[in-house]
Amino acid sequence: METKIKISDELVMNQIYMIREHKVMLDSDLAKLYGVETKQLKRQVKRNAERFPEDFMFELNTEEQKILRSQFGTLRHGAHSKYNIMAFTEQGVAMLSSVLNSIRAIEVNIQIIRIFTKMRHVLSDNTEIRLEIEKIKGKLDNQDKNMGIVFRYLDELLEKQELPVPKRTRIGFKPDELY
């Protein structure tokens, strides 16, 4: 199925927030993308609550809503006063297409899931790079320690060479004494 609706990756990425250590999208942002009212989206989620366990969707408490409003300026004061904001994880977003029975919801979901997948790949690539850098740092640290030991031994050898050589009495044949 060819996706007809094209939403920019940047638009979707700018609507993904980190809340409770989860990457989530908010109900109002999703409703705009799906072309439905936020109350309709919430109604469908409430009717199908068994499809949205805590790791798929959770409601923000009052403190989280205040923090979100102050940090991102995305929420108009009073716009969400009646009900708590719903935050959907990647799995929750995928589940939304099954409760919002529209072609647009399916097409938008496909795009959103692809963006979540891209983000996961970028993060895993960065993690691999960081691990490689840490491995190299560890090797360099060991190399620095080994070089320190080598220089310490060289210093000790130089100190031994600088000591004065005591005069020795000659033993054996002396040419002056023959005549």
UniProtKB/TrEMBL annotation:
InterPro entries: KilA-N_DNA-bd_domain
Domain KilA-N DNA-binding: 14-99
The name this protein goes by in its record: ORF6N domain-containing protein
Species this chain originates from: Pedobacter psychrodurus
